[in-house]
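Continuing from the previous page...

OK, I double-checked the sequence for Transposase against my notes and this is the correct one:
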Amino acid sequence: MTSKRREYTREFKLEAISLVIDHKRKIAEVAESLGIGASTLDNWVRKYRKEQQGIAPATGLALTDEQRELQELRKQVKRLTMERDILKKASALLALDSLNGYR
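Thanks. Re-ran it with the corrected sequence; updated C-alpha coordinates here:
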Protein backbone atom coordinates (compact mmCIF):
# COMPACT_ATOMS: atom_id res chain seq x y z
CA MET A 1 0.00 0.00 0.00
CA THR A 2 1.52 3.29 -1.07
CA SER A 3 0.64 6.68 0.28
CA LYS A 4 0.16 9.68 -1.94
CA ARG A 5 3.09 12.05 -1.89
CA ARG A 6 2.18 15.40 -0.36
CA GLU A 7 2.91 18.54 -2.32
CA TYR A 8 3.61 21.88 -0.70
CA THR A 9 3.22 25.34 -2.14
CA ARG A 10 6.24 27.53 -2.74
CA GLU A 11 4.93 29.98 -0.14
CA PHE A 12 4.64 27.23 2.48
CA LYS A 13 8.21 26.11 1.80
CA LEU A 14 9.55 29.66 2.00
CA GLU A 15 7.72 30.28 5.27
CA ALA A 16 9.11 27.06 6.77
CA ILE A 17 12.61 28.00 5.58
CA SER A 18 12.18 31.47 7.10
CA LEU A 19 11.36 29.94 10.47
CA VAL A 20 14.65 28.04 10.37
CA ILE A 21 16.92 30.71 8.90
CA ASP A 22 15.45 34.04 9.98
CA HIS A 23 13.99 33.00 13.32
CA LYS A 24 16.89 30.66 14.18
CA ARG A 25 14.63 27.74 15.06
CA LYS A 26 15.78 24.14 14.79
CA ILE A 27 14.78 22.14 11.73
CA ALA A 28 13.31 19.32 13.82
CA GLU A 29 11.26 21.78 15.87
CA VAL A 30 9.85 23.57 12.82
CA ALA A 31 9.19 20.32 10.99
CA GLU A 32 7.27 18.89 13.92
CA SER A 33 5.20 22.05 14.39
CA LEU A 34 4.29 22.10 10.68
CA GLY A 35 3.67 18.36 10.43
CA ILE A 36 6.36 17.67 7.84
CA GLY A 37 9.41 15.47 7.87
CA ALA A 38 12.64 16.91 9.23
CA SER A 39 14.57 15.56 6.23
CA THR A 40 12.11 17.28 3.88
CA LEU A 41 12.59 20.62 5.58
CA ASP A 42 16.35 20.07 5.70
CA ASN A 43 16.34 19.51 1.92
CA TRP A 44 14.37 22.72 1.38
CA VAL A 45 16.77 24.71 3.57
CA ARG A 46 19.86 23.31 1.80
CA LYS A 47 18.33 23.99 -1.62
CA TYR A 48 17.42 27.53 -0.58
CA ARG A 49 20.92 28.25 0.72
CA LYS A 50 22.45 26.99 -2.53
CA GLU A 51 20.11 29.19 -4.52
CA GLN A 52 21.10 32.17 -2.37
CA GLN A 53 24.71 31.46 -3.33
CA GLY A 54 23.73 31.50 -7.00
CA ILE A 55 23.81 27.76 -7.53
CA ALA A 56 20.90 26.75 -9.74
CA PRO A 57 18.80 23.80 -8.64
CA ALA A 58 19.45 20.61 -10.58
CA THR A 59 15.83 19.54 -10.68
CA GLY A 60 12.43 20.95 -10.03
CA LEU A 61 11.39 24.53 -9.64
CA ALA A 62 13.55 26.99 -7.81
CA LEU A 63 12.45 28.47 -4.52
CA THR A 64 13.86 31.96 -4.88
CA ASP A 65 12.44 34.51 -7.29
CA GLU A 66 15.86 35.08 -8.84
CA GLN A 67 16.44 31.42 -9.59
CA ARG A 68 12.91 31.02 -10.96
CA GLU A 69 13.47 33.96 -13.28
CA LEU A 70 16.83 32.52 -14.35
CA GLN A 71 15.16 29.19 -15.18
CA GLU A 72 12.52 30.94 -17.27
CA LEU A 73 15.11 33.03 -19.10
CA ARG A 74 17.18 29.94 -19.89
CA LYS A 75 14.11 28.23 -21.34
CA GLN A 76 13.38 31.31 -23.43
CA VAL A 77 16.97 31.52 -24.72
CA LYS A 78 16.87 27.84 -25.67
CA ARG A 79 13.59 28.28 -27.54
CA LEU A 80 14.74 31.44 -29.32
CA THR A 81 18.03 29.81 -30.33
CA MET A 82 16.14 26.88 -31.80
CA GLU A 83 13.78 29.22 -33.68
CA ARG A 84 16.72 31.21 -35.03
CA ASP A 85 18.43 28.05 -36.26
CA ILE A 86 15.25 26.92 -37.99
CA LEU A 87 14.89 30.30 -39.69
CA LYS A 88 18.52 30.21 -40.83
CA LYS A 89 18.04 26.80 -42.42
CA ALA A 90 14.76 27.82 -44.01
CA SER A 91 16.23 30.99 -45.50
CA ALA A 92 19.19 29.03 -46.88
CA LEU A 93 16.80 26.56 -48.52
CA LEU A 94 14.70 29.36 -49.98
CA ALA A 95 17.79 31.09 -51.34
CA LEU A 96 18.95 27.83 -52.89
CA ASP A 97 15.54 27.22 -54.43
CA SER A 98 15.42 30.71 -55.89
CA LEU A 99 18.90 30.26 -57.40
CA ASN A 100 17.92 26.91 -58.90
CA GLY A 101 14.77 28.45 -60.32
CA TYR A 102 16.75 30.97 -62.36
CA ARG A 103 18.99 28.42 -64.09
